[in-house]
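Q: I have 288 residues here and want to know how they pack in 3D. Can you give me a structure?
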Amino acid sequence: MRKKTKITIDPKYILAVIAVVSILMIVVSFRFNDKMAPVQSAVGGVITPMQRGINTIGRKIAKQTKHITTMNKLLKQNDALQKKLDEMSAENRLLQQDKYELEDFRKLYKLDEQYASYPKVAARVISSDPDNWYNTFIIDKGSEDGLAVNMNVMAGDGLVGIITDVKKSYSTVRSIIDDDSNVYGTFLKTSDSCIVSGNLQLMNDGVIEVSSISGNAKIEDGYEVVTSQISDKYLSGILIGYVHDLKKDVSNLTQTAYLTPAADFRKLDMVLVITKVKNSDELKEMLN
C-alpha cells in the first residue's frame, strides 16, 4: 500500500492569502461598483437579517445585564437598610429597657420615701421559679452587701416577702403569695388583727387569703392591711394589700376575706430590702 503524504501549510501563508483576497475584494468593490451591486444586494439580503437578529439578541442581553446590575444594586441597598433597621431596633429596645428601669427606680424611690425610717438597699431580681408567679425568687445582693435572713423585702406599693437564705453575692426571697407564707396583719383603719396566707391557686385571680378576722370587726371592702407589731419576723406598718369580699363563718365568731397584694407578683424586676432584722427583744418591748 502506498503511504499517504500529509500536507501541512504554515498558518502565516493562510493569513497572507486571506489578507490578499480581502484587499482584492475591496478594490474590485470600489472599481466595479455598478457590476457588484447585485452581489452586494444578495449579500446584504443575507447579512441584514443576521445583523437584525444579532442586534435584537444584543439588546436583550444588554437589558438583562442592566436588570441584573440593578438587582444587585437593590440587594446591596436592601442589606444596608436591613442592617440600619436592625441597629435602630436594637437602640429602640435599649431605650425601652432604660425607660422601664427608670420607671422601676421611680417606684422604688417613692416606696423608699414612704418608709424613710427603715434603712434599705435596692436589689435586682435575677431568677425565679418556673411558674407564672414570683412566689420564690433570687436577688443579686447577699451577705457582702449586708443582707441577712429574715430581712423584709418590698416592691410596688408594699410588702413582697422575706429573705429565707443568704449567700455571699445573692439571696433567696419567699414572697407572701407562697403557699408556706403566713403574715400577721392589722387593718390600718380599725387596728383589728388578721392573718394573711399565701395561696398560689388564688393568685390566678390576683388575690390571697385573709383569715382570723374578729366577727365584730367593722371592716369594709378596700380597707388597707399592714404588717402587725406582733409579727416575729415582719417589721410593723408595711402595706400588704387591700381587703375585699368579707364573709362571716357559720358561728359569726370570725370573718374571712380576700386580699389584693400591694405588689405586682406577675412581674418583679427591682426590690427594696430593709436592712434591719426584727428580733425577739424588739417584739417583747412592743408587747410590753
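Q: Anything worth noting?
A: Residues 33-114 form the longest helix (82 residues). The mean pLDDT is 81.
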